[in-house]
């Protein structure tokens, strides 16, 4: 069995926790993840989402710019503290590398603002894919950094 990789990226935003949480949970993914980082593509959109994202058990299909898709299910919602999700059904270039992902966004007070942490636990698609996890982790951190930069603009505009 190949060991999963856990990666995370945090950033502090000058807004209250409630505002940061609400914006991150409900902003369309294609607005946050709109830039490529190396081989990691931007998100082009989602399909199959009923209503505003925020209810445990909701699912949607994420469409990536490289033609791949991923099924996301919201697994946990703790208002103003965090929310978690699972990604399965991965297609496209990432399929051989990743079998599933457990993701989580966490929000905690930091001075007069909010520290937002995005975390992924990545389960490799095979033992060979497991060998690529250190590189995948470095790429993911760069992708996360760019997403947080974009998210800062979105959060501040909503404040």
Summarize the structure.
By secondary structure, the chain is α+β, with helices and mostly antiparallel strands. It has four helices and seven strands; from the N terminus they run E-H-H-E-E-E-E-E-E-H-H. Helix 1 crosses helix 4.
Tell me what the structure shows.
The protein is of the alpha+beta class and 159 residues long. The protein has helices at residues 17-26, 29-32, 127-131, 133-158; strands at 5-13, 43-47, 59-64, 69-78, 82-88, 98-110, 113-124. The protein has a seven-stranded antiparallel β-sheet with strand order 1-7-6-5-4-3-2. A hairpin with a 3-residue loop joins strand 4 and strand 5. Helix 1 (17-26) crosses helix 4 (133-158). The protein starts with a strand and ends with a helix.
């Amino acid at each position: 069995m190949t060991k999963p990789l856990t990666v995370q990226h945090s950033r502090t935003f000058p807004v209250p926790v409630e505002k940061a949480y609400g914006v991150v949970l409900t902003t369309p993914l294609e607005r946050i993840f709109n830039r490529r980082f190396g081989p990691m593509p931007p998100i082009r959109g989602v399909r199959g989402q009923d209503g505003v994202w925020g209810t445990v058990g909701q699912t949607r299909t994420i469409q990536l710019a490289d033609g791949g898709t991923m099924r996301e299910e919201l697994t946990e919602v703790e208002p103003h503290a965090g929310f978690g999700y699972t990604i399965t059904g991965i297609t496209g270039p990432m399929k051989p590398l990743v079998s599933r992902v457990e993701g989580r966004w966490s929000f905690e007070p930091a001075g007069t603002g909010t520290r937002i942490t995005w975390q992924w636990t990545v389960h490799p698609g095979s033992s060979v894919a497991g060998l690529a996890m250190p590189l995948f982790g470095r790429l993911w951190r760069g992708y996360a950094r760019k997403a947080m930069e974009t998210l800062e603009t979105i959060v501040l505009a909503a404040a």
